Amino acid sequence: MGPAGTANYYATYTTVLGIVLVGIAFAALAFGANRLLRPTRPTREKLLTYESGVDPVGSGWAQVHVRYYVFAYLYVVFAVDAIYLFPWATVFAAPGFGWGTLVEMFVFLGFIAVGLLYAWRKGVLTWT
């Protein structure tokens, strides 16, 4: 690639650079317009911390048992499982999807089942 080829190669990125600059300018303009046009009347009540309609009492530090994080993690695992299962189920009957696709899905479900079995054997799924 000669000097002319290199120049043409980098010239193709000017479009990308232009779009990035327009995006940055648009975001800056939007934030600036918001700051100029919004009403600002801070009062003591508006500056207080507000949590679900209850005034805060005590310190904000509270320890949470690790079991709640494990349940959240298991939820995420099964939510991801559902995200992959439902689209697969809708296109499985389409032409081009055959036994290979079915086997791949059962391998995927097998991994999920092994994880669930492991969690059950470790006692993670008991709420005590």
Q: What is the strand content?
A: under 5%
The H/E string reads HHHH
Q: Runs with pLDDT <50, length 5+?
A: none
- In this structure, how is the largest beta sheet organized? none
Q: Which structural class is indicated by helix and strand composition? A: mainly alpha
Radius of gyration: 27 Å
Secondary structure tally, helices = 4
State the total count of DSSP E strands.
0
Mean pLDDT: 82
Helical proportion, percent range? 55-70%
Distance between the amino and carboxyl termini: 69 Å
What is the molecular shape? flat
Transmembrane segments: 12-37, 68-91, 97-120
Pfam family, one: Oxidored_q4
Family: Belongs to the complex I subunit 3 family.
Keywords: Cell membrane, Membrane, NAD, Quinone, Translocase, Transmembrane, Transmembrane helix, Transport
Question: Can I get a quick summary?
Answer:
The chain is mostly helical and 128 residues long. The protein is 65% helix and 0% strand.
Would you give an account of this structure?
By secondary structure, this protein is mainly alpha-helical. The chain has a domain at 66-121. It is 65% helix and 0% strand. The protein contains 4 helices and no strands. The chain has helices spanning 3-11, 13-37, 66-91, 99-121. The chain is flat, with a radius of gyration of 27 Å.
